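I am writing to request your help with a piece of structural work I have in hand. Thank you for your consideration; the sequence and its tokens are set out here:
=====
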Amino acid sequence: AVRFFVRVHKFDEGGLTPGKENLCAMTENMQADDVQRRKPRVVRCCLNDRLLKSFERRHGMEIFSTRRLTRIGVITALYVVTTLLCAPLAYNAVQFRVSEMLMLLCCYNKDYILSLSIGCFLSNLFSTLGTVDMLFGTAATVIAAVLMYLTRKKADLFVSSLFPVVSNALLVGLELKIVFGDPFWINAGYIAIGELVCISLLGVIVFKALEKNAGFMKLIAAETADTKKE
């Protein structure tokens, strides 16, 4: 019995200890391998985050920002609702679409180009002129919105407001000629008068007053020139 105990004791000391050491070594190696595998992922994530932030700083824009998407959505909804509220005067030859004054937002931030283009398209779904209004009306809005943003640093607010007046007069005037056969220049004149009143008069007065409010400029994330910083 004594000999058996001594042999078992020696086996424990000589056999189990190396086994435990091997097991520990294997565990450490597995952990080390796992850490090594995770490192490239962490590095890639860090690099992607840095590149994204660098791009945002360089171009002055927030990509996939909840705040940015909210701004776009709110202005889109505001345009549609305001248009529908004045629906009797928002369509056909004589138009006084009050929601058009929101076009001036394009002079402050590029995001509103998308807002107003989508808003115009959705509003024209309810137009009495049908699909053709969705095409011509939205095209006029997109052209004007882009030109307003591109010239924001060179032209004052009133001059910028003339882009939607001209684009709507020409394109919507052409649309009305195609649909009703009315003289082009008469249609263009009616549309231009309505746009001029809603944007160049009412719109400019309202936005000139709002420009003096720092809280409003921050709210719309104004990105232009000296007095229009976010």
The first helix runs from residue 2 to 59. Helices lie at 2-59, 66-85, 111-123, 131-150, 157-180, 184-210, 214-219. The chain has a mean pLDDT of 80. The CA atoms of residues 211 and 217 lie 6 Å apart.
